Amino acid sequence: MAIHQLQVLYDTTADRLLLHMRTGAAEMYSVWLTRRMLSRLYTPFRSAVTATSVAQTTPRALPVPEARQMLEQAALDRPLASADFATPFVTTDASYPLGPEPLLPDTVDLRPGQGGQITLAFREPRGRRIEVALSNELSSALLRLVDSALAAAQWGLVASAAGTAVGAASEGPGEPPVAGRLLN
Known about the structure:
Blueprint: E1 3-11, E2 16-23, E3 28-33, H1 35-57, H2 65-77, E4 107-112, E5 118-123, E6 129-134, H3 136-153, E7 180-183
Antiparallel strand pairs: 1-2, 2-3, 4-5, 4-7, 5-6
Helix pairs in contact: 1-2, 1-3
């Protein structure tokens, strides 16, 4: 699936985030992201995006621990050449291969992919699923959109300077896993 546009909105009525993905072939995929799901997904996703961004922007860097946080933040804040945050999201003339209702997943798999890609696989109990391979730039753009929607939601899952979500369940000491299964 070649993603053409992404949108993440906070729905106040449902108290959920709604992720819309539109492909170049005008196929629309939508996924509900609950607070519980994001409390488990946000930190590992942010860590994976940060790790791939640092690896891509400074492939041979071996930063001292004191400089690591600054290097990670610089990699996340870098300009995204192909991202356009000003163009409105297009919903007209789209087909819905999985139906018009957004997925309400109970499981999401987060895996590193080829060449710095990050793969997200959303599955719901009734069998619908979607798997998305995000390039480094696309995953960085999605992280920025999620951050913006989380600020609107006021769920308390805002990233701290150390890259961990405030209010999220702790994974234990050390860095959170880059790959894993997250349950809603």
